[in-house]
Design goal:
The complex is a heterotrimer of chains A (about 325), B (about 325) and C (about 350). Chain A has about 325 residues and is mainly alpha-helical. Chain A is about 65% helix and about 0% strand. Classes of the chains: A mainly alpha (about 325), B mainly alpha (about 325), C alpha/beta (about 350).
Chain lengths: ~325, ~325, ~350
C-alpha cells in the first residue's frame, strides 16, 4: 500500500487533503526530469504487474511443453488406440470407466484421440511455421538488403498476397491443390509468409545502415557473409518472438481447414476434424465437440502467453 | 492529401492486377487438365475437346487471361459446374447475407473493443484492466468455430433463447427474426476482432496519455473526461482506423467459418461447398469478388485515415 | 500597474502606491508556498522531488526559479497548478496560498479546474509536442476561453484570433485555422503563450519556455512574455537553468538544489553577492565570451545526489569546496542574512547561518 500521507510528517504539522486527486485516474505520466531514473509505479502495482507477466508466461510455457510432450510421446501416453472402435460405449460421458474423457460416436476414446490429435495439429502448425519463417525471412533479407528491383518485386508479391483476406487465401490454395494434410500445411504457410517477410525486411532495413555493417563492408566481407553473420543474427530474436506469436494463428487456421473438411482427411484426424464430427451430437454429448475445441484454445493460449513473455524479454520493438 | 491518395490509388492498381492474375491462374495451377477439371470427372473426351475449343484453352495464357479478365469486368463470371447457373448472380444474391453478418460483427467489435481498450488504458493496472486484458488474450486464442459451437450450445440448446442456424426461420421472417438469427453469429465473429481492437486501443491510448499535449489540455482546466474522450481519443482514432482495415480482412475470412458453423447463407458457405466440389468458376468468382472488395475497402480506410490525420491532410 | 482591488477604498492598497511612490510589486504575495513536499512513491523507493520548499511570488513580479535538472523546480510548479502525476506523485505536506484565499491544496478538484488556465496558467518546455496535433490552433485557444468564460463558440474564436495577434503572430485569422505541425517552434510557443494568457491569469508558471528554441527566437519569446506581463499585471514564476535568462527577466530569484531552496534574494544581489557555494558555482560556470581567460570552462564537480538516498546533513556536501564538519551533521535551515536588498537575502548554508538561526520564509 502506498505510504500513508499522515505518517510522513510535515514541516509545520499541517496535513494535506487527500482530495488532491486532480490528475486523471491512474494515467501513467510522462517521465519528469525530476524523477528520471526510477520506475514510476507504486510498489504494489509494479511488483504485481511483473509477477503477473512472468507467471503467465511460465504458465504458457508449461502448456506448450505439455502439448509438445503429448505430440511427441503419443504412443506411450495414449491409454488406448485412437482409432479403436468400441460399439458398446458410444458417446460415453466424461469419467466413464475406461474412457477418462468419454468416447465419441464410434466409441473411440476421446483422450487418446486428443493426444494423437496433438501430434497432427502440432506437426502441421509447426511445419507450416517453419516453412513460412524460412521463406519469409529469406525474402525479407534479400529484399531489404539488396533493395532495387528485387525488393520491389518481392514487395509487390507480398502486397498481392496481403490483398486477400487471411483465411480466404488459405482457401484459395486448397482450391488449387485440393484438400489434404500436406496441402493444408502449404496453404497455412503461404498465408503467413508476408508476415515474416515484412518483419525481417524492416529489421534488415534498419540494420543495413548501421555502423558494423558498414565496417564489415569496409574490410571487404562478401554480401553473403554480411547477410548471414550480421543481419540475420540480429533478426533472430525478433523472428523467434514473431514466430511464437504466430503459431497460434497457424494452429487455428489449420484446425479451421480441417473443420471445414478441407484439411486433414480421414482416416487421419486432428482436433479440427474431431470438432467437426462431434458437432452433430452437440445436444446429446457436447463434450465430444467441446473437448477438442478446448484443446485448441488452451494450446493457442499457451503459445500466445509464451510469445508475450518472450517478447517482453527479448524484443520490446514488437510491442503492439 | 491528394498526393497521398494518388499514391495509394497508384499502388492499388498493380495489386488488383496481381490479384486477378492469381485468381486466373488458379485453374491452370491446379494439377490436371483445365478442361477436365471444368467439366468434372464424368466428362467424355468429346466434350472436353469441345470445351477446350470454346474457352480457347489452347491459346497462349496471356490471351486467355485477357479474355477472362474482360469477361469478369463485364460481370460475366462464368457458369458454375455444379449448379449450372451463372456465377455472378449467385454471388450477388449471397453477398447481402455476408455483408449483414460482417458489418454487424464489425460494429460489435468496435463498440466492445474500443471502449474496453479506453477504460483499460485510463485505469491501467486496475482490476478492470487486468481482467479485460486477460479476457482479450483468451478471445484472441479462441478459434472461431469453437466459440461458435460453445455459443450454440449455451444459448441455443441449453437456454433456448436464440436459434442456432440459418438466417431466417424456415417460414420466412421479419426484421426481428433476422436479428434473432444474427445475434450469435455476429457475436461469435465479433469477439476475436473485439479482443484485438481492445489490445491495440489500450496501447495506443497509453502512449497518447503520456504525451505533452494531454498535459497541456489538463493545464487549461479541462475536466478529465474531455481530456480522454476528446483530446486523447481523437488521436487514438488514427491508429484505430488503421487497424480496422486489417480487422475487416479478418472478418471477411472469418465469415467463411462462421457461416459454416451457423449455416448462414452467405458467400463463405457457398465457397466451401464450391471448393469441396471443385467448382472452379464458382471459387474463382467468389475469391475475386471478395478480394477486390477488400482492396477497395482498404482504399476507403486509407482515405479515412488521410482525413483523420491533419498531418496528412495538410502537408 | 492595475490595481486589482476594488476602486475607491485605500484599504489593502500598499503603502508605496498610497504615498505616490512608483508602484512596485505589491507586498502581499500573490502566491505563497510554504514547506511544500511533493514525493513520488516508486518501486525503487520514495523520491522526494520537492522536500520542504518555500517561496513566494508577488503581484506583477517575475520570480526566477533556477537549478540543475532534477532539482525539483518543475515539480514545484506542477504542484502549484495541481498537475502532479498521481500516481505516483503526491503532495504530502505544505500549503500553497493563492491570493490570500487560503490553502489551494485543500480545494476540490472542480474548484482547482476553475483556477487552472484561468487564474493560474502554465506553459511548458516543448512547444513541438505541447499542442494537440489533430485540432486547429485557434480551436485549442478558443477551448481554453470557453472553459472559463461564458461566451459563444464564435465569440471565443474571435477572442482567440485576437490573442494570436497580441502574441505577435502575423495574419492571425489565417493562422488560427492552421494545425500545429504547420507552424514553426517559435510560433508554437507563441500559441502556447496565447493559450495560457487567454483568460488573463494572475499567475503564469513558465517551465523553461525558451530552452527548446533557437537563440534568436528565445529573445523574442522572452520579450513577448515581458510585454504581456506589463500589459496585464500578471506575475510570472519563471523556471530555468539559464542564468542569463534570470538576469534579463526576473526581479527575485530562488535557487533550488536537490528538492530545496538553497538561496533566495533579488536578482541584483544574487549576481553581485552570491552566498551559497552552489549559486557561486552556477554563476562561475557561465561561459564568458571575453578574451581574458581561455582556460577550461568551470564546472561544479560531481553530480546531483540520488534523490532516493540523500546524504545526512547538507545536500550539497559532496560537491562543495568549502564543506566542513557541521555540513555533514545536519541540514542548515533557510535563514535570513543581513544583506539589504528587497525581501531579504536567504541562504541555506552553515557558512552564513549560525545554528541558532530560525528558518525564514522568502
Amino acid at each position: 500500500m502506498p505510504i500513508s500521507i499522515r505518517e510522513s510528517g510535515t514541516a509545520d504539522g499541517i496535513p494535506v487533503s487527500p482530495g488532491r486527486q486532480d490528475v486523471s485516474d491512474r494515467a501513467i505520466p510522462a517521465i519528469d526530469d525530476d524523477a528520471a531514473a526510477v520506475d514510476m509505479f507504486t510498489p504494489t502495482q509494479s511488483v504485481a504487474a511483473r509477477f503477473r507477466r512472468n507467471k503467465l508466461s511460465i504458465f504458457g510455457a508449461v502448456i506448450v511443453a505439455v502439448a509438445v510432450a503429448a505430440a511427441l510421446f503419443a504412443p506411450w501416453l495414449s491409454p488406448l488406440d485412437p482409432d479403436a472402435v468400441d460399439a458398446r460405449s458410444r458417446l460415453a460421458p466424461i469419467g466413464t470407466e475406461g474412457h477418462l474423457l468419454g468416447s465419441d460416436e464410434l466409441g473411440r476414446d476421446i483422450l487418446s484421440r486428443l493426444i494423437w490429435g496433438a501430434r497432427v495439429t502440432l506437426l502441421v502448425s509447426l511445419s507450416a511455421t517453419a516453412i513460412a519463417l524460412i521463406v519469409g525471412t529469406f525474402l525479407g533479407l534479400i529484399g531489404g538488403y539488396f533493395l532495387g528491383w528485387l525488393d520491389s518485386v518481392i514487395m509487390r508479391l507480398i502486397d498481392v498476397l496481403m490483398a486477400f483476406p487471411y483465411f480466404l487465401l488459405a482457401l484459395t490454395v486448397i482450391a488449387v491443390l485440393g484438400p489434404g494434410l500436406l496441402n493444408g500445411m502449404i496453404a497455412v504457410a503461404l498465408v503467413n509468409i508476408p508476415f515474416f517477410t515484412r518483419i525481417v525486411r524492416g529489421v534488415t532495413l534498419s540494420i543495413r545502415e548501421s555502423d558494423y555493417v558498414m565496417a564489415a563492408r569496409g574490410i571487404g566481407a562478401s554480401n553473403t557473409r554480411i547477410l548471414v553473420r550480421h543481419v540475420l543474427l540480429n533478426c533472430v530474436s525478433t523472428v523467434i518472438v514473431a514466430g511464437t506469436l504466430n503459431i497460434g494463428w497457424m494452429i487455428t487456421a489449420a484446425a479451421a481447414l480441417s473443420f471445414l473438411g478441407l484439411g486433414v482427411q480421414p482416416p487421419t484426424s486432428d482436433w479440427g476434424t474431431m470438432l467437426s464430427s462431434g458437432r452433430q451430437f452437440l445436444s446429446a454429448a457436447p463434450h465430444v465437440a467441446t473437448l477438442p475445441g478446448l484443446a485448441i484454445f488452451i494450446t493457442v493460449l499457451g503459445f500466445n502467453l509464451l510469445g508475450d513473455g518472450l517478447r517482453d524479454a527479448l524484443d520490446p520493438r514488437l510491442r503492439e | 492529401m491528394w498526393q497521398y491518395l494518388f499514391k495509394r490509388l497508384l499502388h492499388t492498381i498493380p495489386v488488383l492486377f496481381g490479384v486477378s492474375v492469381l485468381v486466373f491462374g488458379m485453374l491452370h495451377l491446379a494439377p490436371g487438365d483445365p478442361a477436365q477439371i471444368l467439366l468434372g470427372p464424368e466428362a467424355t473426351a468429346d466434350s472436353i475437346a469441345q470445351v477446350r475449343e470454346d474457352l480457347g484453352l489452347d491459346k497462349p495464357l496471356v490471351v486467355q487471361y485477357a479474355t477472362w479478365m474482360s469477361k469478369m469486368a463485364r460481370g460475366d463470371f462464368g457458369r458454375s459446374i455444379v449448379l449450372g447457373r451463372e456465377v455472378f448472380p449467385e454471388i450477388w444474391a449471397r453477398f447481402k447475407a455476408t455483408a449483414i453478418l460482417t458489418v454487424t460483427s464489425l460494429i460489435i467489435a468496435v463498440m466492445l473493443g474500443v471502449s474496453a481498450g479506453i477504460v483499460s488504458a485510463v485505469r491501467q493496472y486496475s482490476l478492470f484492466d487486468s481482467i479485460a486484458m486477460l479476457v482479450a488474450l483468451a478471445g484472441v486464442s479462441m478459434p472461431l468455430f469453437f466459440t461458435g459451437i460453445v455459443a450454440i450450445l449455451a444459448f441455443a440448446m441449453k437456454l433456448r433463447w436464440l436459434p442456432s442456424a440459418g438466417m431466417y426461420s424456415p417460414a420466412g421472417g421479419d426484421l426481428w427474426d433476422l436479428l434473432r438469427h444474427l445475434v450469435l453469429p455476429a457475436l461469435t465473429l465479433g469477439t476475436v476482432s473485439a479482443a484485438i481492437l481492445a489490445r491495440m486501443t489500450r496501447s495506443a491510448m497509453l502512449e497518447i496519455i503520456r504525451q505533452d499535449y494531454v498535459r497541456t489540455a489538463r493545464a487549461k482546466g479541462l475536466n478529465e473526461r474531455s481530456v480522454i474522450y476528446i483530446h486523447a481519443l481523437r488521436n487514438a482514432s488514427i491508429t484505430i482506423v488503421t487497424v480496422l482495415g486489417m480487422q475487416i480482412g479478418y472478418l471477411l475470412g472469418g465469415s467463411v467459418i462462421t457461416e459454416a458453423v451457423f449455416s448462414w447463407p452467405g458467400i463463405g458457405q457457398m465457397m466451401v461447398r464450391a471448393i469441396q466440389a471443385r467448382d472452379y468458376p464458382m471459387v474463382q468468382g467468389g475469391v475475386f469478388f471478395v478480394a477486390a472488395m477488400f482492396v477497395f475497402i482498404n482504399l476507403l480506410v486509407d482515405v479515412l485515415y488521410a482525413y483523420l490525420d491533419p498531418r496528412i491532410r495538410y502537408r | 500597474m492595475r490595481s486589482t482591488h476594488g476602486c475607491g477604498s485605500n484599504r489593502g492598497v500598499p503603502e508605496q502606491i498610497q504615498n505616490g511612490e512608483p508602484p512596485v510589486a505589491s507586498d502581499a504575495p500573490l502566491l505563497d508556498v510554504v514547506g511544500l513536499k511533493t514525493h513520488f512513491f516508486t518501486f525503487g523507493g520514495v523520491v522526494k522531488a520537492v522536500d520542504g520548499v518555500s517561496l513566494s511570488v508577488r503581484r506583477g513580479e517575475t520570480l526566477g526559479v533556477v537549478g540543475e535538472s532534477g532539482c525539483g523546480k518543475s515539480v514545484t510548479a506542477l504542484s502549484v497548478i495541481g498537475l502532479v502525476p498521481n500516481p505516483p506523485g503526491r503532495i504530502v505536506a505544505g500549503r500553497i496560498d493563492f491570493e490570500g484565499r487560503g490553502d489551494v491544496l485543500g480545494v476540490s478538484a472542480e474548484a482547482m479546474r476553475e483556477i487552472r488556465g484561468n487564474e493560474i496558467s502554465m506553459i511548458f518546455q516543448e512547444p513541438m509536442t505541447s499542442l494537440n496535433p489533430v485540432f486547429r490552433v485557434g480551436t485549442q485557444i478558443a477551448e481554453a476561453i470557453r472553459l472559463h468564460r461564458q461566451v459563444s463558440k464564435k465569440e471565443a474564436m474571435e477572442r482567440a484570433i485576437e490573442r494570436l495577434g497580441l502574441v505577435g503572430i502575423p495574419s492571425p485569422m489565417a493562422r488560427a485555422r492552421d494545425y500545429p505541425h504547420q507552424l514553426s517552434g517559435g510560433m508554437r510557443q507563441r500559441v502556447m503563450i496565447a493559450m495560457a494568457v487567454a483568460c488573463q491569469p494572475k499567475l503564469l508558471l513558465a517551465d523553461e519556455p525558451t530552452t527548446a528554441l533557437d537563440v534568436t527566437v528565445q529573445a523574442q519569446i522572452l520579450d513577448l512574455m515581458n510585454r504581456m506581463k506589463e500589459a496585464s499585471g500578471a506575475a510570472i514564476m519563471l523556471i530555468t537553468h539559464d542564468m542569463g535568462v534570470i538576469a534579463e527577466m526576473c526581479q527575485r530569484v530562488s535557487v533550488m538544489y536537490a528538492g530545496v531552496v538553497v538561496e533566495h534574494t533579488d536578482v541584483r544581489t544574487l549576481f553581485a553577492n552570491p552566498l551559497h557555494p552552489y549559486t557561486v558555482g552556477l554563476l562561475d560556470s557561465i561561459p564568458r565570451g571575453r578574451s581574458k581567460a581561455s582556460g577550461q570552462l568551470k564546472t561544479i564537480p560531481g553530480i546531483v545526489p540520488n534523490l532516493l538516498h540523500l546524504p545526512k546533513g547538507c545536500r550539497f556536501q559532496d560537491r562543495c569546496s568549502q564543506v566542513h564538519a557541521a555540513c555533514r551533521e545536519s541540514e542548515p535551515p533557510l535563514a535570513a542574512v543581513c544583506d539589504g536588498g528587497d525581501g531579504g537575502h536567504l541562504v541555506r548554508c552553515w557558512l552564513h547561518v549560525s545554528p541558532s538561526e530560525t528558518p525564514a520564509r522568502p
